[in-house]
Amino acid sequence: WNGLMIAALAMGARVLGDESYLQAARRAADFVKENLRRPDGRLLARYREGESEYLAYAADYAYFIWGLIELYEAGFDSHYLALALELSEDLNKYFGDQKEGGFFFYGLDAEQLLARPKEGYDGAMPSYNAVAALNFMRLARLSSDLSWQEKAQQAMDYFAAEVQEYPTAHSFWLLAAIFQIYPGSEVVVAAESENQA
Predict the structure, then answer these.
(1) Cys-Cys with 172: which of 124, 130, 148, 179 at CB 3.0–4.6 Å?
(2) Which residues fall in a coiled-coil region (predicted)?
(3) Ranges of the chain whose pLDDT falls below 70
């Protein structure tokens, strides 16, 4: 939920030019970074009365990474992009299905249950798998590291039949597909200082 709010605020700041939205998004992201992470960097799911507990799920990672990417694009503060890349490594490490593609809901380090679900449909919130795939495509372009694109493609391939059968239940996957099919243009501005750019 935090990541969804951060993404919405950062996007609102960029589209509307409202600095107060950008500041609110930064405060929220910084709070999560400082209060909902273990010393090893693993995200946690709950903060209450000064205590952080419970390992975060794949959805927590995907939504927070989305928020960080939007925050980077709204203010171009590179430390948010660096954090998005770092957390994406963790998302892939703890949740990635290295054989078939996509992401399990629970991490490798979580309590071992009978099954590790991997969900692709949109409910009240977008599919965390679709959000993660779109995040990885965006990170591939922002970082010039095409291995992120490969990971996104593996997830898209895994869920392709499900999306084709029920496209209305997978609208965020369709958004990711549009992003992949129509990559847009990249503009690089090179200058000796920020003031010249």
Answers:
(1) 130
(2) none
(3) 197
